[in-house]
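Predict the 3D structure for this chain.
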Amino acid sequence: MKNTTKKSEFQTKNVKTSFTGTNITKFAGLSPIMKFFGKLRIGKQLNQLFPTTIHNATKFTNVQIMLSVILASMSGINRISRISNFSGDGLVKALLGLKKQINENAISQCFKKLGEAGARLFQEFGYKPISNFIEKTRIKHLTLDCDSTVFTVYGNQEGAVKGFNPHKKGANSYHPLIAFGSELKLVVNSWFRTGSAYTSNGICEFIRQTVAVLPKDIKLFFRADSGFFSGELFDLLELFGINYLVKVKLKNLQHLLKQQNWTVTNENKEIAICEFEYKGTGWNKSRKLRAVRLFKQWREFENFGQVEKVAEYEYVCFCSDLSGTATELYKKYAERSTSETWIEQVKSQLMAGKTLTDDFWANDMLWQMDVFAYNMSVIMRFKIRKFWQQEHTTFKEWFITVPAKLVHTGHQWIMKIHQNYYFKEQWLTLEQLLV
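Done. Predicted structure below.
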């Protein structure tokens, strides 16, 4: 009797690895994005603002380098070395008219040469699409959630110094200031600052600049944490007719609140409220402060052999020109957490502040470009509301980091995406709206 051996139906095969040239891209979604940029004349405007002096050694224009950074940010890519590799992608080269990938030195030197003037000029450039977009939405009320954000840096970056750093104490950092338009999820204004800058440094000038950027007929509401508790700021907001809600910061705040007469609310017996007039040092007038006392727990202690209980409370106090009780202000302030989440997206998902050089003004400009990339993402997604409500990471995975094949024929590039791509219908809808 013969022994027979049956081979398994599943057999492994040797697969050869090869690296393709310009016929493959991982970022198919950049094609409709660049068409949208063309519609807004972004490339032409940047070329007018930052013209390149052409000579024999010129290999890349300022606009090519800037757009490569903006597109890389939208694609979730940070660091100059990775942006350099990104610019070698077949589609990126075709969209930007590059003959080869941009080298690292060209990227860093471009922004260093532009310096402070370039950083300020790009910041002003970024205001126009924001203002135009807000006007088109016809929104009548806009909440400005003002916040400062700290991010740690490693190395010898200019302007990165030790300051308040809740993430890593004693480490060098930068400390940008941000005004976030909550209803539209936009970064309306931002200042790149050194790590030693206090939270509210320059806030009055920052507000003046922000107001100048926004449409004149829009009603603004300013909301911020205790780092912005300032009589000078309140004077300015009242001058502009901007309602405000700011958390109170005082050294003796808890002692001051314990002396007030508290009223227990009807809705919850563990919550009490109070209000009183207060005039800070250097203030032009007194303002009403409203506070909430929240019950935390009972604390037991022994008193002459007997165990007694004492209630422990948490206090929250606000300065605001809004009407309403302290409880209503507390709920209004709690909505600020949504804006904080979206601000974190700017840093983590659009890589803001993660592409750095050793030059402060170059880093400022790179920060502004990342913020610009975030705002453009929001403006594009606003055309389809269900995309607008999602995080940028989701949008990036669905519509940007999509593999495709490039075919050069008839003096033009044709991009071919797989016919069974899962988000095909959404892709076609978005592409049609963008262009």
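The chain has a mean pLDDT of 84.
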